[in-house]
Amino acid sequence: xxxxxxxxxxxxxxxxxxxxxxxxxxxxxxxxxxxxxxxxxxxxxxxxxxxxxxxxxxxxxxxxxxxxxxxxxxxxxxxxxxxxxxxxxxxxxxxxxxxxxxxxxxxxxxxxxxxxxxxxxxxxxxxxxxxxxxxxxxxxxxxxxxxxxxxxxxxxxxxxxxxxxxxxxxxxx
Length: 173
What we know:
It is a single chain. It contains seven helices and two strands, in the order ααβααααβα. It is mainly α. Strands 1-2 form a two-stranded parallel ribbon. α4 packs antiparallel against α6 and α5 crosses α6. The longest helix is centred in the middle third of the chain and has 55 residues. Keywords: Coiled coil, Signal.
């Protein structure tokens, strides 16, 4: 879904009059990072992270992480003197704890991703406006999505500029 939203944004950019894109410099942008690093996105994500369900899951995740780390240390310390049966039992406990940790981590990630997806969709019109403005003011002739580029020196990136403009627009509204 994130890729679909980004594709729609790219299509909006592609529909910019060709005269604007005919000449100029090359730039790259990471739209997802630009949006998620904006003040509005950080406030929304902080809101999700402060919800009781999220906090409970985070506490459980931290507890499971500590338990898993402890089990790993104990296994590494004692493995040489354990019988094969004890090693197998310890490995099963480790695998079970790892599965529990991954499950809770997945719940946390899903909550943040759902919020991120909603933000991408909500901020899409504002992002298109910001991109059009930057294309015009920066004289950008070719703008590429960062995820589609194998290599680009940091000087080609306008991601921070997009985030700054989003913050300015959000503050003005």
